[in-house]
Specification:
The protein is α/β, with parallel strands linked by helices. Helices cover 27% and strands 27% of the residues. The protein contains 6 helices and 15 strands. The strands form 3 sheets. Strands 1, 2, 3, 4, 5, 6 and 15 form a 7-stranded mixed β-sheet that branches. It has a 6-stranded mixed β-sheet with strand order 9-10-11-12-13-14, with helices on one face. The chain has a two-stranded antiparallel sheet with strand order 7-8. The structure holds ligand LYUYDEPV. One of its GO terms (molecular function) is omega-amidase activity. Keywords: Hydrolase.
Length: 271
């Protein structure tokens, strides 16, 4: 399958969980109507990105209402659904920032728990202590579906080139980052990081943020985008809510890697 259409759902996230689920369902339906076979939601799409709210919105697999809905939506629309992330509670009561991926039969294909937690204190205003509530995951996630290899990580993970490289060495064709970048770091780093990971690994990268939500305490930067293995933008949203559909042509990846065989030129024996 050399060309596949991705649905990038830059949806707003409000305080009411049910409203977020309705919005997500509408976005997935619209993406399917537009022919997208892989549909991606943003980080913490069922819950505002505020640590003090995570426990109240947390759900466990398989019974959580958000997780039930994601499976149903994937099956109803026959799409691979990369379910952004939600606060996930495990049987010991720990909470993770987790991405669940569902297949076209509504089956769980994979799950990824955010490894690098957003603990920062940036003078211009981005103060966040994700680890106050969230437990870090302990494994990367790469999955193959329809002959396409997807690497999944979450937001702040994009800053760690080692994780991206590890996923690519495991065969990833597309690196998918559900995210909610801050309005302070977003304008300077977001596009740069996605393009850097794309160019240094010759891979498609996709970042999916919530859109602007009037009155929200945390206003994510938005600007969801997809980048090809040459570093060219395939499409980008603004700050407002939007469904962006982009076509990913895998022959592009093969061509770039053939012409500029970067991955073959690595010298892991020397560094
Ligand atoms: N949700 C996050 O991990 C935010 C990451 C972020 O804004 C950054 O600058 O990194």
């Amino acid at each position: 399958m050399p060309i596949v259409s991705l649905g990038i759902c830059q949806m707003p996230v409000v305080e009411e969980k049910k409203e977020n689920l309705k919005t997500a369902a509408a976005y997935v339906a619209a993406a399917a109507v537009r022919g997208c076979r892989i549909v991606i939601l943003p980080e913490m799409f069922n819950c505002p990105y505020q640590t003090e709210l995570f426990a109240a919105y947390a759900e466990s697999y398989p019974d959580g209402e958000t997780l039930q809905l994601l499976g149903e939506l994937a099956a109803r629309h026959r799409v691979v659904l990369v379910g952004g992330s939600i606060p996930e509670r495990d049987s010991a009561g720990r909470i993770y920032n987790t991405c669940f991926v569902f297949g076209r039969e509504g089956n769980l294909l994979a799950k990824y728990r955010k490894i690098h937690l957003f603990d920062v204190a940036i003078a211009q205003g981005a103060q966040f202590q994700e680890s106050a509530v969230i437990t870090a995951g302990s494994a990367g996630t790469v999955l193959t579906v329809d002959g396409l290899c997807l690497g999944v990580a979450i937001c702040y993970d994009i800053r760690f080139p080692e994780l991206a490289r590890a996923m690519v060495l495991q065969g990833a064709d597309i690196l998918i980052y559900p995210a909610a970048f801050s309005p302070v770091t977003g304008p300077v780093h977001w596009e740069l990081l996605l393009r850097a990971r794309a160019v240094d690994n010759q891979v498609f990268t996709v970042g999916v943020s919530p859109g602007a939500t009037p009155g929200a305490v945390y206003q994510p930067y938005g600007h969801s985008l997809a980048v090809d293995p040459w570093g060219d933008l395939l499409g980008q949203c603004g700050s407002q809510e939007e469904l962006l559909c982009v076509a990913v042509d895998l022959t592009r990846l093969q061509k770039v890697r053939q012409e500029l065989p970067l991955l073959q030129h690595r010298r892991p024996d020397l560094y």
